[in-house]
Amino acid sequence: MRLHFRQLRSLAVFAGLTTFWSIAIATAATSDPGCPPPNRGQALEGFVEVHGVRLQYLDWQGSGPALILIHGAADDPHVFDDLAPAFIDRFHVIAYARRGSGASDARGPYDVATLTQDLLELMDALGIAKAALVGHSAGGNEVTEMASLHPERVDRVVYLDAAHNYADPSYQAAHATIPPAVFDEPASAMASLEAFRSFQKAIWYPELDHLGRLEAYLRAKVTLQPDGRVRDRVPKEVRDAIWSGMLAGKPRDYTRVHCPALAIFAQYALDVHVADPHRRADAIAWEQRYWGPFQAKSAAQIERELPGVEIVQIPDSRHVSFFLTHRVQVVSVMRRFLGAEP
Fold it and tell me: In sequence order, what DSSP letters do the residues of 136-197 get, joined into one string?
């Protein structure tokens, strides 16, 4: 399916929010969130050593040049289980767990330079001379640095709601004021694997009819205890160190990126449709005051510094789940950009 785009100068969004840069909006229908995706495949798990740290990777195999998927801060490569199979007909698709995440070693430091070196050495270990890079969220840091420092190793880059300058003070102000309820994880949510699934469904993935597409991802996020309870696989102190490394990084500089680039933006960071009226009001107020201006600033920066970048916003979508809830749109935009259309 080929998408058709129309250029707009502004887009009116939920609760009166407005974005102020030229964006492309897909006019095709979104996917049915409850419909299993085509070409679902199982990834093979492997490990490589990079300067004393063992990194986990998932390999969907596939045919063609390498396509490497990079998850966000303290996340897990299984987050791409639903997305990766859409590209195995034209690419050899790999995702890996950044240090401190998934089944990779939790050993600092977690600064952008170290994480980028991890990516470079992962490519060396797997015999990948050149790849297209796709980063989600904080994974955009490695995408930008690899394309800047090692242009001969990068074919093109895709930012999955990852074209954000996390070292910008305006982001740090936004992060510091996220409503506490967003990250509250009650003890009841860790009482069992089923309780954890239910909590994740209610808080992070209410748009999905079921969580079958995320089963391996949710299991990878926790470890099962002898009493049936679960605990986070990535301890809080490691998560905090990863976040600190991200926030303390140097500002993004897209002027050093010279390969083709696609920046896909989700419309929201938080759930502005949550049923609880107090949480909904808090989310809308935060989006209006903090995320909306920061999002616009981020898009303006990459458009200004990276001539020819393609910028796409997925309407009524959310940072953590947009490539699940709007899978058809995201896959179609990416395949066209990557040259993977039939």
Answer: ETTHHHHHHHHHHH-GGGEEEEEEES----TTSHHHHHHHHTS-GGGT---GGGGSSHHHHH
Tell me the three-class secondary structure of 259-324, residue by residue: CCEEEEEEEECCCCCCCCHHHHHHHHHHHHHHHHHHHHHHHHHHHHHCCCCEEEEEEEEECCCHHH
The residues spanned by each domain of the chain are 5-338
232, containing H or E segment: strand 230-232
Closest residue by Cα to residue 320 from 184, 138, 56, 88: 138
Residue whose C-alpha is closest to residue 337's, from 302, 317, 311: 311
The answer to whether the beta carbons of residues 274 and 283 sit under 8 Å apart is yes
Rg (CA), the chain: 19
Residue whose C-alpha is closest to residue 116's, from 98, 142, 139 = 142
Task: Give the whole-angstrom CA distance, residue 287 versus residue 162.
Answer: 17
Give every residue of the chain whose pLDDT is below 50, as ranges: 1-40
The pLDDT, as a whole number, for residue 342 is 59
**Which numeric CATH code is attached to 5-338?**
3.40.50.1820
